[in-house]
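User: Hi! I have a protein structure encoded as tokens and I'd like to know what sequence might fold into it. I'm fairly new to this, so please keep things simple.
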């Protein structure tokens, strides 16, 4: 389950961006007139008990999305119980009077759906997406959670342990976890409870009791404090009847709902904080100002202002800090539509060799520029177009539409808020932006936070102690015990059973059309015309496995520099022209291929394809762009090497594949050794029409798609020389190793088991896929059941199986406190043995099969997902109708097939093991369990050597 800090997850991983140049040829493409976005269509009513109900029927999907949002968030945490709303979010997934623990997962994941939740400052939202015939069962379950939650000591204790592990993973083990999860809110507010971190603290979690949980549920989890939104394939009249049956009987307490009344005082002088923390690879900075509440009339202006500052590679912060000055590896802003006046945050992860002070100075210069000078018309138009495109993408799926509507009701107090916000954004003027910037960026109210490495702390330097102010106002829940309902799980014979599922609703897959151009380019078109959006994905069939020996990272570098300049467009031209159109373009490489992805509104596809084709065919690979990208990748690597999870994954890759093509891992040496000639040569050899497939999916006919392909790629010359030979991806080294990577002072250990699977085209692919789903393919799978649910040792335990042309990797992973790392490794080993020793029961097999089928179905709801599925099939040389046979292929797998392949592949005696963490706390126990365990210091880990030494 997610928490407020999950919104910054990408920042915690520090996804390093690339840089771009500033030449002025040719002028950006003119943006067409704004496209109209159809408003959300819904019906609404309020039950006598106060529950607000919204319905959005849609016969064009096979799924339904159910959202239940409660008007309570982390700002409502009681006195001495920070993180309580988030803890309660976890507990709501457990038992009710008629549902034993984990029943909700049986009703969602086990039928091909999913569930989750998140806790924010002002609200907590719970949601499910399931096949449409399961809707009644989910409505029944949500009513159970609202009206008859069971809170007992065992559940409370287990989930509190899970939340502690989440705290360790997100806050203590991540290099920037304390910055984003704790220090930004703690330094920003002194009175309002927004100043207490949503994830809380270990101390407050330990202090909480079962009675606290029951009181919290009684105070806030009531019909008149909730909104129910359902979107998808259902009958309106039947839905209304089910809502009346399951939700209407839930009583509403007569007492008022406790509400936060705290008002943050106006800050009259700026504040500065400096803190030194362990395992911080690069300095971080954050600058915050008091912000507008979401319902403020100027919030639309602030969205545009925020887009101008930080959205895309042509944004001001990116251009200034990342590209021109090369001060930052990443820049970010945080804009949340809070109920009360919140905060606006601007920050950066500073590049190697640069200082936090340089970063602060550069950010302040951009703030002053936006505040003191009017925004250019073109820049304003670009920001609006980007926000318009985002709005269209948010409406692609039943889940997205339900989320938009629920958010409108809870955060903005108006079901039409999402549509009104779009109109308000389009009406924003340059004068509006400057007016709001002047009011927002008042330096008397600024808070500046410098986040530095403990290792580089000067002897006489002071580290500010940062914690929530003692003056923070928090809720006091004085609810009479007589009004707190205590529910217990009913005896099995007395439980009300979930409703029976309705008739299955078949998923609809648009039929693809294809042709091959004269130059060898394969073109696939998938028409899906419900929204004005098109995804165009060009995939070349050469990825990191094709990297030359000793030059790991070549394919990645080619992809990363591809969008950073052509023979006629600079990197800045590309970014500005694409973003002015409201489109996005991105390139990346995986083991077997590389992609150039374009997402565009359909009325702008011609202009967008003009740029994309130029990028694919005519990259300049300018030396200065390569050097900028090189530094970005080195900065990103330095961050990864300080995170136990990413560090362990790099090590397990080397153990699994050694010096074979799939074993190549980018290192400091390999990144530094890449030359411009090697990069250009790789592009010339592999980025060619007869080694590529172009997929166009969305608001386009087959004829229109083929015409676009011919127009932009038909004259792409096929080189005279033959294609380079394919790498030997079938090879993999034998044997196994157990390695402990010592990362002192890290807050958690990452525990990984790695096995070698089979190729995507192998006859055993689907049995192995289903076997992995049983082993660790989701929350309901065996690893999660044993490690998280049963013992509370980890926030999540999963196993992933990579689709490859050759031997695919299988990696089981969990993060846990250092002292339980060896225990978690033992639990993984036991599950490996169990998978190959006994047949999977029929009900478990059916559930895990449904989970795979449901996930696949959701993956093709969006045009980007459709493109991805088609290009993958093409890259594996599989027929496109495999999209239609996926359900049958997965469903045909038998328990005997799973047992047989598990004996051969899920063998703990042949599996590689990596644990990355603070080895002093567990290595002695590790040696007892694994006498052959090796210990390697993180700063001595040699990724260029298969031995890691």
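Assistant: Happy to help. Inverse folding works backwards from shape to sequence: for each of the 949 positions I chose a residue that suits the local structure. Here it is:
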């Amino acid at each position: 389950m997610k928490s407020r800090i999950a919104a910054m997850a990408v920042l915690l991983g520090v996804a390093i961006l690339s840089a771009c140049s500033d030449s002025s040829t040719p002028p950006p493409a003119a943006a067409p007139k704004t496209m109209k976005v159809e408003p959300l269509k819904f019906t609404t009513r309020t039950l006598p008990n106060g529950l607000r109900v919204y319905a959005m029927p849609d016969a064009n999907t096979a799924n339904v999305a159910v959202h239940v949002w409660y008007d309570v968030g982390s700002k409502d945490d009681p006195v001495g119980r920070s993180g309580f709303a988030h803890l309660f979010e976890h507990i709501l997934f457990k038992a009710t009077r008629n549902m034993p623990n984990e029943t909700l997962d049986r009703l969602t994941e086990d039928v091909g759906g999913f569930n989750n939740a998140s806790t924010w400052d002002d609200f907590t939202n719970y949601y499910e997406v399931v096949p449409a015939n399961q809707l009644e069962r989910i409505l029944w379950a949500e009513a159970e959670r609202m009206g008859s939650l069971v809170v007992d000591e065992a559940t409370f204790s287990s989930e509190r342990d899970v939340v502690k592990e989440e705290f360790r993973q997100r806050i203590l083990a991540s290099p920037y976890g304390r910055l984003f999860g704790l220090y930004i809110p703690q330094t920003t507010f002194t009175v309002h409870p927004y100043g207490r971190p949503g994830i809380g603290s270990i101390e407050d979690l330990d202090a909480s009791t079962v009675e606290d949980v029951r009181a919290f549920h009684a105070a806030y989890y009531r019909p008149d404090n909730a909104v129910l939104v359902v979107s998808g394939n259902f009958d309106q009249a039947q839905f209304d009847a089910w809502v009346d049956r399951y939700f209407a009987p839930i009583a509403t307490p007569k007492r008022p709902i406790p509400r936060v009344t705290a008002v943050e005082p106006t800050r009259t002088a700026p504040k500065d904080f400096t803190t030194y923390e362990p395992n911080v690879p690069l300095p971080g900075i954050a600058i915050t100002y008091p912000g507008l509440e979401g319902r403020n009339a100027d919030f639309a202006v602030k969205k545009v202002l925020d887009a101008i500052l930080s959205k895309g590679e042509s944004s001001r912060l990116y251009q200034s800090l990342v590209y021109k000055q090369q001060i930052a590896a990443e820049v970010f802003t945080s804009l949340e539509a809070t109920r009360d006046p919140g905060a606006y945050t601007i920050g950066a992860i500073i590049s190697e060799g640069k200082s936090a002070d340089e970063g602060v100075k550069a950010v302040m210069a951009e703030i002053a520029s936006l505040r003191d000078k009017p925004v250019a018309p073109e820049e304003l138009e670009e920001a609006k177009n980007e926000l318009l495109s985002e709005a269209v993408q948010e409406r692609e799926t039943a889940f997205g539409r339900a989320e938009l509507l629920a958010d409108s009701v809870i955060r903005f107090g108006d079901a039409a808020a999402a549509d009104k916000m779009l109109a308000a954004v389009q009406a924003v003027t340059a004068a509006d932006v400057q007016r709001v910037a002047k009011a927002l960026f008042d330096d008397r109210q600024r808070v500046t936070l410098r986040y530095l490495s403990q290792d580089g702390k000067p002897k006489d330097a002071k580290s500010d102690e940062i914690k929530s102010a003692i003056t923070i106002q928090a809720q006091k829940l004085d609810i009479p015990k007589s009004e707190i309902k205590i529910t217990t799980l009913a005896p099995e014979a007395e439980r009300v059973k979930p409703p029976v599922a309705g008739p299955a609703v078949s998923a609809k897959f648009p039929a693809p059309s294809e042709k091959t151009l004269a130059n060898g380019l394969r073109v696939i078109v998938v028409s899906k015309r419900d929204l004005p959006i098109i995804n165009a994905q060009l995939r070349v069939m050469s990825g990191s496995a094709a990297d030359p020996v000793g030059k790991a990272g070549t394919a990645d570098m080619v992809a990363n520099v591809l969008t950073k300049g052509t023979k006629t467009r600079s990197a800045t031209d590309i970014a500005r022209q694409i973003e002015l159109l409201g489109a996005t373009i991105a390139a990346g490489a995986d083991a077997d291929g590389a992609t150039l992805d374009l997402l565009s509104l359909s009325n702008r596809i011609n202009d967008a394809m003009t740029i994309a084709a130029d990028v694919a065919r005519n990259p300049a690979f300018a030396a200065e762009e390569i050097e900028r990208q090189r530094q970005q990748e080195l900065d990103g690597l330095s961050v990864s090497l300080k995170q136990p999870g990413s560090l362990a994954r790099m090590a397990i890759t080397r153990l699994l594949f050694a010096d074979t093509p799939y074993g190549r891992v980018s290192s400091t040496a390999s990144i530094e050794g890449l030359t411009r000639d090697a990069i250009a040569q790789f592009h010339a050899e592999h980025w060619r029409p007869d080694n590529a497939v172009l997929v166009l999916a969305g608001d386009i006919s087959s004829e229109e798609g083929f015409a676009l392909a011919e127009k932009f790629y038909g004259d792409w010359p096929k080189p005279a020389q033959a294609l380079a030979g394919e790498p030997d991806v079938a090879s993999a080294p034998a044997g196994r190793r157990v390695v402990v990577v010592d990362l002192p002072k890290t807050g958690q250990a990452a525990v990984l088991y790695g096995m070698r699977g089979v190729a995507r085209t192998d006859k055993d692919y689907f049995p192995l896929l289903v076997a992995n789903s049983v082993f660790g393919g989701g929350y309901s799978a065996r690893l999660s059941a044993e490690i998280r649910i049963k013992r509370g040792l980890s926030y999540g335990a999963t196993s992933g199986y990579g689709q490859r042309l050759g031997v695919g990797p299988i990696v089981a992973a969990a993060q846990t406190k250092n002292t339980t790392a060896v225990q978690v490794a033992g639990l993984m080993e036991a599950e490996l043995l169990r998978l190959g020793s006994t047949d999977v029961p029929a009900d478990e097999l059916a559930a895990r099969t449904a989970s795979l089928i449901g996930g696949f179905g959701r993956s093709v709801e969006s045009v980007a997902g459709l493109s991805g599925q088609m290009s993958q099939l093409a890259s594996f040389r599989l027929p496109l109708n495999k999209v239609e046979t996926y359900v049958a292929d997965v469903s045909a797998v038998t328990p005997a097939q799973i047992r047989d392949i598990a004996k051969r592949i899920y063998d703990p005696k042949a599996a590689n093991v990596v644990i990355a963490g603070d080895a002093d706390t567990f290595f002695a126990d590790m040696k007892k369990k694994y006498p052959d365990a090796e210990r390697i210091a993180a700063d001595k880990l040699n990724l260029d050597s298969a031995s890691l030494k």
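A useful reference point when you look it over: Confidence is low (pLDDT under 50) at residues 1-32. Feel free to ask if any position seems puzzling.
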